[in-house]
Specification:
The chain is 39% helix and 23% strand. With 250 residues, it is of the alpha+beta class. The radius of gyration is 20 Å and the shape is elongated.
Length: 250
């Protein structure tokens, strides 16, 4: 039976039987992994507490012949990002990061960049708070790393540079156009949002989220990322509705 040890971030879990759970986690080496935590619901299980969502863990798992699911042998908690009393902002924000990662990362395929991204954004959220700038940062980068973010640096028609002046995103065609070529067609990304997009691709999550994101830029980037995600996922994520509602109340 092949056995592996890896650092992982737990994304979610759900019941399998009275005592067992299926745990979904993401790793550098194997991408998204679904594995059975046997007896994890029992109070005396050695896995109790370590397989909670948004835990950064070191996990030992193996394949059982004839099964599509891995089995967890051991798990050590390295850090719990939700802790005991997380703020609503962090709770909703981290749940959204986890659901988005689960939707976009392939199962059993190595994906070091996405693992590093998620870990970096979780750390930034713990240090600076899970504000809207950090949410937009994660969305843009996971779209890019998944090959789902078009190159919006230049107009697709006239090749004019639109990085700082803004553009119109033609979502279905995967193109960006300057105002003259777009003729009002597409999702408008104004100058402030275009400049924020450029900074996202240049800066670390801490550097980008340390500075407030202008409301117009946040609004434009949200329209862009949510339309791109809706196009490729063909659904709305439940965790984003809760996060969006929280942002509107604060």
């Amino acid at each position: 039976m092949p056995s592996h040890e890896a650092e992982a971030i737990v994304l979610r879990h759900y019941p399998l039987s009275e005592a067992d759970r299926i745990v979904v986690f993401v790793t550098r080496e194997f991408g998204k992994v679904r594995a059975v935590g046997q007896g994890v619901k029992r109070p005396r299980s050695r896995l109790v507490g370590s397989l909670e969502p948004l835990n950064h863990v070191r996990v030992d798992f193996y394949a059982k012949e004839g099964s599509d699911l891995w089995r967890i042998r051991q798990c050590e908690t390295l850090h719990s990002y939700l802790g005991r009393n997380p703020s609503l902002e962090r709770l909703y924000g981290y749940q959204y990061l986890a659901e988005l990662t689960q939707e976009l990362v392939e199962e059993n395929h190595s994906n070091p960049p996405v693992f590093r991204l998620l870990l970096a954004v979780l750390n930034a959220g713990e240090a600076l708070g899970m504000g809207e700038a950090l949410v937009r940062y994660f969305e843009i980068w996971i779209l890019r790393l998944s090959g789902l973010l078009p190159d919006y640096g230049y107009c697709s028609d006239c090749k004019k540079c639109v990085k700082d002046s803004g553009f119109y995103a033609w979502i279905e065609a995967g193109q960006g156009r300057c105002a003259a070529c777009a003729r009002g067609r597409g999702v408008i990304i104004r100058a402030a949002a275009g400049q924020a997009l450029r900074r996202i691709l240049q800066l670390s999550p801490e550097q980008f989220s340390a500075k407030a994101l202008p409301p117009t830029a946040a609004c434009d980037l949200e329209r862009l990322t949510q339309r791109l995600l809706e196009l490729h996922l063909e659904k709305h994520l439940k965790s984003y509705a809760a996060l969006r509602s929280h942002f509107q109340r604060t």
